[in-house]
Every structure is written in C-alpha cells, then in structure tokens.
TrEMBL record:
Residues 217-318 form the HTH araC/xylS-type domain. Pfam families: AraC_binding_2, HTH_18. SUPFAM superfamilies: Homeodomain-like (SSF46689), RmlC-like cupins (SSF51182). Gene3D superfamilies: Homeodomain-like (1.10.10.60). It comes from the Bacteria. PANTHER family: ARAC SUBFAMILY, HTH-TYPE TRANSCRIPTIONAL ACTIVATOR RHAS-RELATED. PROSITE patterns: HTH_ARAC_FAMILY_1, HTH_ARAC_FAMILY_2. The keyword Iron does not apply. This is Helix-turn-helix domain-containing protein. Keywords: DNA-binding, Transcription, Transcription regulation. It comes from Duganella lactea.
Amino acid sequence: MTELLVLTTNSISAEPGMSQWMSMWGSLCGKSAVKLRSDTFDRNVFEGRISYSTIGRIRICKIEATPHRVLRAETSNLLADNRPYKIVIQISGTSTVEQSGRSVTLPPGEWTIYDAGKPYAIANPENVEQFVVIVPREVIASARFDLQLLVAQPFSARIGVGRLACGLVRVAFEEMSELHLQSTDDLADSLVRLFQQALLERSSQEINAPRTVLLCDRIKTYVENNLRDPNLSIGHLARDLNHSKRNLHRVFAPQGLTISGFIWKMRLESSQRALSAPGLSSRSITEIAYDCGFSSSAHFSRMFKQVVGISPREYRHRHLADAPAM
C-alpha cells in the first residue's frame, strides 16, 4: 500500500507557525541556500496542514492553510538546477502566483506551474485548499516547449487535458491507501504526460501569437537566465537567438526602453531583492553586485544611487529593519 503522511502546525501563533510551515515545505522539496520570507497578513495565528505521498518520481500534496504569503527573492545558484517545479491546483480560496514578470490569480478550478528554483511570490489572502504536485524538473521538462515561458500562466482544471490531469490528481490522492507500489510508477508517468500535454497545448497557442511578441518574450527570458554574466550584451542575444541586432532592437522598442536599458533595470531590481533579503544579510554589497552581473562595485553603487535615490548600503539598512520576522 502507498502511505499517506500528514504534517501539521496545529494552531499556534503566527511567527512560530510560519517558521514550522517553511520547515515542513523544506522537508518535502529539499533545503535551499536561499531563505524564504513569509508572513500571515498580520494575523496572530497560523494553521497549516499538508497531507502527502510520493508516487513514482512525483509527490502529491493536499494543502489546507489559513492566510499567508511566501516570497523567494533570489535564485539559489548552487541548487537551482536541482529544484523542482510545482503544479498548483486550486480547490478553494484564491491564490496569486508571481514569477518571471507574470502574475496569475487562481480561483477554484484553475491551476498553474512555477519554478521553485527561481524567484517567486505566492499570496493566499484567505483560507486556502489546493493540491500541489511536486515534479523534478528533468521529469516535467520537454524539448517540445519552453517551461520558462509557461510559468505563472492560468490553466483550466475544468476542460480539456487540464481537467483530465487535475481529475487524476484528485483521484490518486483519494485512493492513495489502495495504491500498490508496483502501480505508482505508471500512475506518475500518466500524470506527468497529461500535464505535459496541457503545457504543450498552451505553448502551441503561444506559437500562434505574433512573432514579435514571442521574440520579445525570448529576449526577456534570455536576459533573466544570463543576468549574472557581466558580459551579457545585445551581441550575445543576437548570436544566441539567431537574429540581427537591428531586428532585436526593433522588436523590443514597444517596451519603452532599449535592451541594454532592460538588462540594467533587471540587474538593479535583482540587487534590490538581494539587499532586502534577510537570508542574504551576511553577503557583502560587493558580492551582491557581482552576483547581479555588475563588473564593478563602484559602478554598481553609482548606478544604484542614481536610479533608486539612496546608496545600496542605506537601502539595505532601511529594508532589513522593516523586514517581517522569519
């Protein structure tokens, strides 16, 4: 028989409750070098319950929790390639998932996917119930679609392949105690194939979008994935995306800034997240500058103050002083 396990915070005050909640998720998904920030929307008590079981190469969890939100501000470069993807299927309440510049609010009957190894934010402003399927990235990835273009997108659990995939998750969870170990690998493979098909269908719809829109998304994704490279430039983009510099500039023009301007904007935003992350408080400002792709700490400080209005050191001091307790 397949065992269904339960982790619960019981009913305890918010701060230790959220700390316990983060620890529970860490045990399910693998510890990260990046500390997650969390809070309970100023509520004094937090309650959470995770019922889960491992089926083949995936893990199915049922989440029941009071209002809370979680922020992963930085990528763990050491562990990012080993972190899983998470498929969130909304049962009750609403949840907002943000990643890669996109935001999706899930009502009951919808689902989405996000990369647990990259920055994200999840807000559950009301009591929430959902299934979360934890899938290793090498299992869900496919050469037929780019997962980074599909994270934080809305998918329906009421029609089409999405309905089949999410329905099978529910049935698998409800019948967990009756499943025999020898059948779980096949069940996991079936679930993954259904979700891959749903992702492929969305990817095909994206392909029918204007080519300029798709190329613009590819530019943004490329920049995000290579932000740490101090040599990142329009020349690298043109070479790796197989487009002329002129064409890339033309496609990106409607964004209201140049590609170089977008690169610096992303680097500054990444540095702001790092400077305000309590888990990175031991890293020097120079280290953070290099992590964000700046080749000179002096250049970083000048540009940061020019854009943000205060020095990186002052920015860190202000935001860490105001950071919620972990």
